[in-house]
């Protein structure tokens, strides 16, 4: 039987390749993930739904699914999936040219990926940020961002998508260098990319052929190799740019066409645009259509082809209305999503504060207000673990009220309670002064955690404790080296034995 993780991996591959069988598999995965109320599993399914809606163009469902996914995932602190949700929302915003929203959500995605310590997700988000910077015309920054991504990626060679990401980001680095006017750097990158092409799996070569072809053509444009650029452009128009996976490259194609026009290759740019228009599978976004229409308008104006120019203006008017409608919706959904994030964060903070109060109540001694034995056990383990990491000293002290049983029997429990409270208050004041945690151990005994103090320092403090107590007390302590073979209870039992020895000495 195929486990759910394998099914999800297969589902994601099918979604990214726009395989419509993914929709059937999505239902099957949903039956398993929604079998019981579970924020993590339910949130994961909602994310997968949103991913499918984005890639298959079901945008009327997309925004609600993202918001529902985020709502579930925040509650169970699934930061890795939250990062993917915000990244997906940012990619969609960038697709519609709403770059400020995209930028903010990429940063949000990066922060959650960093919190989850998900290195691959961090690299993916920063690569998307690099693409956004390129779209904003910041090509040098985009290239620097992509170089960092490649270096980070090389630390994770065992990742299943390693070759694909490395190939795509290397080619993008070459394109950004060219756009920044750094031709030599781009040629060096192209040589590396050509070598990579020989080593990566066949599937990766096929999937990144369009990127490689663009880099080759642009290098030919930049170096003035007219014969080569025309041959490459003919090949690109006829084959490479008609691949379905090329839909993810449309922003790069737009920049490519503008550079063709700038180099006097208007005819080549128009042939490329017309070939893209014929393939509706990759020419879906109204925002992308309007950008290419603007190039066509410039072309028809220069050629004085007024009938076609009029058609372009009319098409642009219709598409612009669609864009504005989608942009208004996206801004509204962005605000709703952020409000949901802030609201859930506040809700979580209230829950954390309430839990903190409950924990404080559970770990506080009802009579004296000092932390109780439950708190002592937890703090002892945590403090000793930290000391062990440094192989440092670990000191524990015990304070016991002298003749407390006789005092309690003679004056009554109320007087005994008042005595305990008075000693606890004195120890609390002492602890606050020197930064020493104090606990009620039980009965008339109290524990002090001296941490990494030397014996001589504790001996000096011991005298001060005795002098400032409202009643006579006995004090003992033990200091151990926190290393292999030594346990925290060695220090506690040693302090207890030391205290009883001191008590016997005093008679």
Commentary on this structure:
The chain is mostly helical. It has a domain at 373-505: Alpha-Beta Plaits, CATH 3.30.70. It has 22 helices and four strands. It has helices at 4-16, 22-33, 39-56, 59-75, 79-95, 99-116, 119-135, 139-153, 162-179, 183-199, 202-207, 209-223, 226-238, 250-262, 266-277, 286-303, 306-362, 373-390, 404-411, 413-434, 455-468, 488-505, and strands at residues 393-401, 438-442, 445-451, 473-481. Strands 2-3-1-4 form a four-stranded antiparallel sheet, sandwiched between helices. A hairpin with a 2-residue loop joins strand 2 (438-442) and strand 3 (445-451). Helix 7 runs antiparallel to helix 8, helix 9 (162-179) runs antiparallel to helix 10 and helix 14 (250-262) packs antiparallel against helix 15 (266-277). The longest helix has 57 residues, at 306-362. The protein starts with a helix and ends with a helix. The model has no long low-confidence stretch (mean pLDDT 86).
Provide the residue-averaged pLDDT: 86
Order of helices and strands: HHHHHHHHHHHHHHHHHHEHHEEHEH
Q: CATH-wise, what's the superfamily of the domain at 373-505?
A: Reverse transcriptase/Diguanylate cyclase domain
Strand content: 5-15%
Q: State the helical fraction.
A: over 70%
Topology, element by element:
Blueprint: H1 4-16, H2 22-33, H3 39-56, H4 59-75, H5 79-95, H6 99-116, H7 119-135, H8 139-153, H9 162-179, H10 183-199, H11 202-207, H12 209-223, H13 226-238, H14 250-262, H15 266-277, H16 286-303, H17 306-362, H18 373-390, E1 393-401, H19 404-411, H20 413-434, E2 438-442, E3 445-451, H21 455-468, E4 473-481, H22 488-505
Antiparallel strand pairs: 1-3, 1-4, 2-3
Helix pairs in contact: 1-2, 2-3, 3-4, 3-5, 4-5, 4-17, 5-6, 5-7, 6-7, 7-8, 8-9, 9-10, 9-12, 10-12, 12-13, 13-15, 14-15, 14-16, 16-17, 19-20
